[in-house]
Write a structure and sequence with these properties.
alpha+beta; Phosphatase 2c, domain 1; nine-stranded mixed beta sheet; 9 helices
Length: 325
């Protein structure tokens, strides 16, 4: 089968390449791995584990902190978690392809001065390129048919976090000892809960809980959910695959994430998931906001169809119906 021709945007990516050195990019996929660092006002750790029931790891994580202050100010830092699917090596290939393409694409050079994408639009475009990269591999090799991956990604730039979501991995916010789920799951059961057809209690442990309704690599085009959150110092963002949130509830994630060291939080959360049977691969990232850079311009506005998250009185605003255009 012949490869489908790349679109103009993807050809531009191949021709130009990212403006960040790839040695500043970390992608861990298909293995047990752990990373930690403290840079650019963020103290972070990410860890992935095969769990107790699977014989290989199809999860992965990625991050990039630009070494240049100019690039950091323009692009921010990016973190992501992916949960591949497809059996054999397909899931691992899908998650790795998505994460590598996400980082490469997000850091592509801007166009002309009148055509510089803002952060959420750049993030959405990078996720769409990741989707295209997976579908091209599927068309090129029939053995990859059916492979795909979830993706939860966050860009921290200045005082804002911009989040992209496809699938049922999750992003959480921990603020002032409360936890908030920032993303919505793209899964059959989650949609039935949102429509009032199932209660939260009925959804827990449901037979079809793991059936997802949206993923990268399944269709030629993908719908990407985008969120924007104004950060506060000492906020903690949690990225995780369903291997964690499927067996460790939100209150437990909150309690375990209270450790001052993000690496210890990751380790303890994975240990908790494994103690609950570890039925799936487990990946988690803990991003603690130690400092906010007020010098970075954030006047680019909210992107079309991006959802603005607001928290007032300890409650998350109705972000799923609150659209800013």
């Amino acid at each position: 089968m012949e490869n489908e021709p790349q679109n103009d945007a993807d050809q531009t990516q191949t021709r130009m390449g990212p403006i960040v050195d790839r040695d500043k990019m970390t992608v861990a996929s298909g293995c047990n791995s752990a990373s930690e660092f403290s840079e650019a006002g963020v103290v972070a750790a990410l860890q992935s584990d095969v769990g107790q029931k699977r014989d290989h790891n199809e999860d992965g994580y990625a991050y990039c902190v630009p070494g240049s202050k100019d690039i950091l100010d323009r692009f921010g830092t990016i973190f992501a978690v992916a949960d591949g699917m497809g059996g054999a090596v397909g899931g691992e290939i899908a998650s790795q392809t998505a994460l590598e393409t996400l980082l490469d694409s997000y850091f592509l050079p801007d166009g002309d001065d009148d055509d510089q994408p803002n952060t959420p639009d750049r993030l959405r475009s990078a996720v769409e390129r990741a989707n295209n990269a997976i579908t091209r591999k599927t068309k090129a090799d029939p053995s990859y048919q059916g492979m795909g991956t979830t993706l939860s990604a966050v860009v921290i730039r200045g005082r804002w976090a911009h989040i992209a979501q496809v699938g049922d991995s999750r992003a959480y916010l921990i603020r002032r000892r409360r936890i908030y789920q920032l993303t919505e799951d793209h899964s059959l059961i989650a949609e039935q809960v949102r429509r009032g057809l199932l209660s939260e209690e009925e959804a827990e442990g449901h037979t079809y809980r793991n059936i997802i309704t949206r993923a990268l690599g399944i269709e030629q085009n993908v719908e990407v959910d985008l969120f924007a959150l104004r950060l506060l110092k000492k906020d903690t963002l949690v990225l995780c695959s369903d291997g964690l949130h499927g067996v460790v509830n939100d209150s437990q994630i909150l309690s375990i994430s209270d450790s001052p060291q993000p690496s210890q939080c990751c380790k303890a959360l994975i240990e908790k998931a494994n103690s609950e049977g570890g039925p799936d691969n487990i990946t988690v990232g803990i991003l603690r906001i130690a400092r906010l850079d007020s010098s970075v311009s954030n006047n680019e506005g909210i992107a079309e169809n991006q959802r603005l998250i607001e928290i007032s009185g300890g409650f998350l605003d109705n972000i799923l119906n609150r659209w800013r255009k």
